[in-house]
Design brief:
This protein is mostly helical. The protein folds into two domains: about 110 residues, Voltage-gated potassium channels. Chain C (Four Helix Bundle (Hemerythrin (Met), subunit A)), CATH 1.20.120; about 120 residues, Helix Hairpins (Orthogonal Bundle). It contains twelve helices and no strands.
């Protein structure tokens, strides 16, 4: 057995993988503790953990098939980047914002938990593959949210209080008291195209979408919205149904399909290796 085979035996050993996984968990927990506690002991442990991560990445590099193969693996680049960031001294930056940026980047070491198990790594791979294949789903979603936002502004935009008469201002203040926005400091939900798009995104999450409908119906009763409750209800139910039950299901279906494809690929690879053996 040559030296490279020895390194491969180490990094592929399950006890070595379990040790690294345990250290990743300890590192993630200590990162959370350091948000409230600055302790020399914790800092020393973190330095030791950084040293272990450095040794691990060096072992994986020595066990590589080739330099190209090593850097073609996204996990290797990710781990190497986090290790290199860990060696950047905070004293190198006099600017407080730069120091904070380095600390935030170090916190990203928590993301090493994504490779703490084969199943988690597979799920992460599925999500990455799904994101790259969901471009047209995103385009479709943007088209629909843009279309509904334009319609929403045209139908439901409230009047500018500065342009109302004295009598209308009194009625408008009464309307705001009866049907105030949620939260109270939020602007008119359909006052502009960007705000309307954000409002539709809120409805997509299920956040206060029925309250928005009731407020618009109240605005109709006060005469500030000209479309009747039937159209208001149809608009909101149609958008909620379309976005939640159609667009989101398309995304979910894509992720499930990619998950199944990756599982089948792994199964075929396992069967091929078994037959070859």
């Amino acid at each position: 057995m040559n030296l490279k085979d020895s390194f491969r035996a180490i990094v592929s050993n399950r006890y070595f993988e379990w040790m690294i996984t345990a250290i990743i968990w300890v590192n993630a927990i200590l990162i959370g503790i350091e948000l409230n506690v600055r302790n020399p002991t914790i800092e020393l442990i973190q330095k030791i953990i950084l040293l272990i991560f450095t040794i691990e990445i060096l072992l994986r590099f020595m066990a590589r098939d080739s330099v190209k193969a090593f850097f073609s693996t996204g996990w290797n680049i990710f781990d190497l980047s986090l290790v290199l960031i860990g060696f950047i001294p905070e004293t190198l930056f006099a600017n407080a914002s730069a120091m904070m940026a380095i600390r935030v980047l170090r916190v990203l070491r928590v993301l090493r938990l994504l490779r703490a198990g084969k199943e988690i790594k597979m799920i992460t791979s599925v999500l990455a593959k799904s994101i790259s294949s969901m471009l047209w789903y995103v385009v479709l979603f943007i088209i629909f949210i843009y279309l509904f936002a334009i319609i929403g502004v045209g139908l439901f935009k409230l009047p500018d209080p500065a342009r109302l008469s004295a009598m209308e201002k009194v009625r408008f203040e009464e309307f705001e008291h009866v049907a105030h926005h949620a939260p109270a400091n939020s602007p008119d939900p359909f006052g502009s195209l960007p705000e309307a798009m954000f409002t539709l995104f809120r409805e997509l999450t299920g956040e206060d979408w029925t309250d928005l409908r009731y407020n618009l119906i109240t605005a109709y009763e006060y005469g500030f919205v000209k479309v009747p409750p039937t159209i208001i209800t149809t608009y909101h139910v149609l958008w909620f149904s379309l976005s939640v039950f159609l667009l989101l299901n398309l995304v979910t279906g894509s992720i499930i399909n990619n998950y199944q494809n990756i599982r089948e690929e792994q199964q075929k690879a396992k069967e091929s290796s078994s037959s070859a053996g």
